Amino acid sequence: MKRNRSSLVLSSILLLALVVAFLPAGCGADSDEAQYAEECAVTCTPRADTPCAGVFTSTCQRDCGLFTEGRAPLCAQCLIDHWAWKGVQCVCPNADIPTECCLCEFGPSASACTCETGETCAPEEEDCDNYTLILVTDHVCKDTCLNR
Question: 111 pLDDT exceeds 70?
Answer without folding.
Answer: yes
